[in-house]
Design a protein that fits this description.
alpha+beta, Glucose Permease (Domain IIA), 10-stranded antiparallel β-sheet, 3-stranded mixed β-sheet, 2 helices, about 15% helix, globular
């Protein structure tokens, strides 16, 4: 019995040491290296900001933000209901919902959000969440172009105020830290800043 227990403990230790780090998201240090340019060779895709050209919005949460993005590589843009949402990259719509008018901070609201999910040519997917009721302009199977209007922002799902939640996952499901074209060049975004959509 003790032998079986010891083997189980050993297996658990090996899993924690070697497997869990591979499943982890980027650390705060790695995120800061990317944001500040300390990691020089960056070949990651450069996205357009997910709203209309020349519009600017405040980024209220970014990757690993402490409010609700712990261990999460996603972005929250504060915007009024009905603000136009545009595809940050071309692809095909694989999921969409636009019939909900519910939002709040109760556990049941986790399943109330309207959203669009688009698969890109490299297999990665973009998720656009908290859209308003009837604020989804595309349907599953549609091909969308970069910059194309796809929906309208709202306040549905698990949310305290109107905003757009934007997230990218690679083809394995791993979250990706995203960089964007901005009027100050290609940037990893930082919360507390306003970002204007430019298209290059």
């Amino acid at each position: 019995m003790n032998y079986i227990y010891c083997m189980q403990s050993l297996f658990t230790l090996i899993f924690c040491l070697f497997c869990l780090p591979a499943l982890a998201q980027l650390s705060d240090g790695e995120i800061m290296d990317l944001k500040t340019g300390r990691r020089k060779e960056d070949t990651s895709y450069v996205y357009w900001l997910p709203y209309a050209e020349n519009k600017r919005f405040l980024l209220i949460q970014a990757s690993n933000s402490k409010m609700s993005h712990r261990d999460e590589l996603s972005l929250d843009f504060k915007m009024k209901k009905g603000s136009k949402i545009c595809a940050a990259r071309e692809g095909v719509v694989i999921e969409a919902r636009g019939d909900s008018d519910k939002g709040g901070l109760k556990e049941e609201n986790l399943h109330d959000g309207n959203y669009i999910i688009i698969r890109h040519p490299d297999g990665s997917i973009a998720k656009y969440w908290h859209l308003e009721k009837d604020g989804v302009f595309v349907k599953v199977g549609d091909t969308v172009q970069k910059g194309q209007p796809i929906g309208a922002s709202g306040n549905t799902g698990y949310t305290a105020f109107p905003h757009l939640h934007f997230q990218i996952n690679d083809k394995t499901g791993r979250q990706i830290l995203t960089r964007f074209y901005t009027r100050r060049g290609i940037k990893y975004l930082r919360p507390g800043n306003w970002y204007k959509c430019v298209r290059l």
